[in-house]
Amino acid sequence: MNGGELARLTRVTHGTTVIVGIEGDVDNSNADAVRDEIDGSLSNLAFALILDLSQTRYLDSAGIQLLLDLGERLRGRGQQFLLCVPPRGPLRLTVTLFELQRAFPVTGSPEEALAQIDAVGASE
Amino acid sequence: MTTPAAPSALVRIRRAVDSWLADQRIGREAGWEIVAACHEACANAAEHAYPPSLSGSIAIEGRLENGRVVMSVHDRGRWRPSRGRNRGRGFTLMEHFMDKVDIERSEDGTTIRMERTVDRGEGA
Q1: Contacting A residues, span 60-79, partner chain B, CB-CB under 8 Å
Q2: B44 contacts: CB under 8 Å, gap ≥ 6
Q3: 3-state SS string over B12-40?
Q4: Structural domains in chain B?
Q5: Which has the closest alpha carbon to B93: A53, A29, A21, A63?
Q6: Distance between CA B108 and CA B74 in Å, rounded?
Q7: Does the complex come out with an ipTM higher than 0.85?
Q8: Which candidate among A31, A95, B35, B108 keeps its CA 20 to 30 Å from the CA of A89?
Q9: What residues contact B39, with CB distance under 8 A and at least 6 apart?
Q10: What does the pLDDT profile of chain A (124 residues) look like in tens digits?
Q11: Could you tell me which chain B residue has the CA closest to the CA of A57?
Q12: Chain B residues 10-39 within an 8 A CB cutoff of chain A
C-alpha cells in the first residue's frame, strides 16, 4: 500500500480486526490518498480498524481531520475505530491537544488496542 | 528559502527547516514542534493565499536571536477566509508550539512571524 510518495501503509488482519500502519508523513498533500487507501483496506466484514501511528513521522492538521472523519465514518457504519500513538512524543502531544480520545479510543500500541476490542467483545 | 505555494512543496520545507534547526543545535523535540508550526503557516499560505489560476510563492526565513528561534513565512497573496471543518487547527498548532505568533497583513501580502525560546545543544 502506498499513501502517495510520503507515506507507506501496511495492513495486517487479526480475525475481524484490520490493523493499518502508516509509515512516513501525512500532510495536506497526501491526506486524501491516505484516506482512500485506508478505506480500500477495510471490507464490510471487518469488525474494527486499528490505525497504528507508531511509525508515523509527521501528522499535520489535515491528518488530524482525516482521523476525525475516519472515526465518524466508521462509527456510522457500526465499525470500531481505535488509534495507536506512542505514549510519548510529538504525535501524542498533537492527539492530546485536539482531544481525539474523546472521539475514539487512543491506545499506546496495537496490542493494547486488540485487548480493548477483546474486552468489549467479551462483555457483549 | 523560497518555494512554490503548493502542498507538494511542504515536505521540502519541513526537511529544510528541520535541517537548519539541527545545525543550530536545537533539541529534537523542540525542533519537531517548530517544524510543525512552520509547516502549518506554509500550508495556510499554500491553501489560502493565491487564486487557483496563479502560481504564487512562499518565502521562509529562520533566525536565532538571543536564545529565541524566529521564523517568518511570507506570501504575496491575499488570504481567503478559511472554510470547512479543518478551520483553525493549523493556528491552534502554531500557537501551542510557539511562544508568540503574529500575523501581519498588508498590500504586499501576509507574513506570519513566530518566536520561541529554545535550549541549544540538547539532543542535537
Answers
A1: 60-62, 64-65, 68-69
A2: B79, B82, B90, B91, B112
A3: HHHHHHHHHHHHCCECHHHHHHHHHHHHH
A4: 2-117 (3.30.565.10)
A5: A63
A6: 9
A7: no
A8: A31
A9: A27, A58, A60, B10, B13, B14, B17
A10: 445 679 999 999 999 999 999 999 999 899 999 999 999 988 877 899 999 999 999 999 999 999 999 999 999 989 999 999 999 888 999 999 999 999 999 999 999 999 988 776 655 5
A11: B32
A12: 10-11, 14, 29, 32-33, 36, 39
d(CA B94, CA B100) in angstroms, rounded, equals 9
Q: Helix (H, G, I), strand (E, B), or coil: what is residue A24?
A: strand
Q: How far apart are the C-alpha atoms of A25 and A38, rounded to whole Å?
A: 15
Residue type at B30? A
Q: Which of A63, A69, A12 is nearest to A42 (CA)?
A: A12
Cell of B29: 523535540
Dihedral pair phi/psi, residue A120, rounded to 5°:
-65, -45
Give B15's contacts (C-beta < 8 A, 6+ positions apart).
Answer: none
**What DSSP letter does each residue of A57-118 carry, written as one string?**
EEE-HHHHHHHHHHHHHHHHTT-EEEEE--SSSHHHHHHHHTTGGGTS-EESSHHHHHHHHH
Q: Which of the 8 DSSP states describes residue A53?
A: -
Q: Distance from CA of residue B35 to its chain's centroid?
A: 7
